[in-house]
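Q: Got a minute? One more chain.
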Amino acid sequence: MKKSFLFLKQSIALFALFSLSISIYAQNTGTTPSEKKGLVFSGNQTTIPQYVGGEDAMNQFIEDNLVYPESAIKDNVGGRVFVRFLVDTTGMPTSVHIQQGLTPDCNLAAMEVVKKMPNWIPATRDNKKTTGFVTVPVVFKVKQVVYDYQASEAETDYEQYQLEGKKWVLIEITGKELPANLPNTPYFTLTQNEKKRKILNGNASCADFTGIYSWNTKNWGLKFTVKEVAKKKCKSKKVKVIDGEFLSILKQCTQYRIKDGKMTVGKMVKERFTPVAVFNYEILKEKGKKK
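A: Always. Here it is, folded:
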């Protein structure tokens, strides 16, 4: 009787081990056990969780819904985050966690996109729905700046596309109105000296500033580097000084757009141009010439 009981315990243990190995095999290969050559099952098959539409549809969903963290864009982070989760009997992804990560921000973004997924087709055993684990790679590509429009040579030669030789006067800070009591309306000018050095000059509302700039007509690139700020006394309670805010706008700027003679400056966020300020222009007087 003891031998029979021992044999029964060994049989149960072997069956449990065999079942576990099949479950692992199915999850790692993406195939059902019956698809493995040489294995024959009696009774009903076991299936793993599946994304509706297949792997291509899942990858497309991730690509369309993954929100790149600003830190990943700024630092050009690329790689994969492996997200593991349980698909319950209703098909809902639960217990989402990181199996192998990149950065904290990327890990969080990867988990968020998985949580947004529509319900999966749940795993089955003996023709009954059951739970099953899934591991999904979420790919973060090194972001390449994508421009929604590139001006032709004819357009960049057209007067309204020319940035140099003009006084660009601030008319709007995105999301807010300009104070009515500014001591001076902020502006900047872009010129080149005899040595083709690109010179930035302007006034930030109270203080004058100088520096250099870079301008790339092919990809709407525009960057400012302020080298020197000449402080002035504009501390009257009757005026509003926004020197720091204006110089911060110039520092943030990496891109520009021209429309109807007005220039919008901004930066790229998640591959989209995000405006920070708008300028109108006046023709800059040349030295020694009267208007």
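A: The chain has six helices and 14 strands.
Q: Perfect, thanks.
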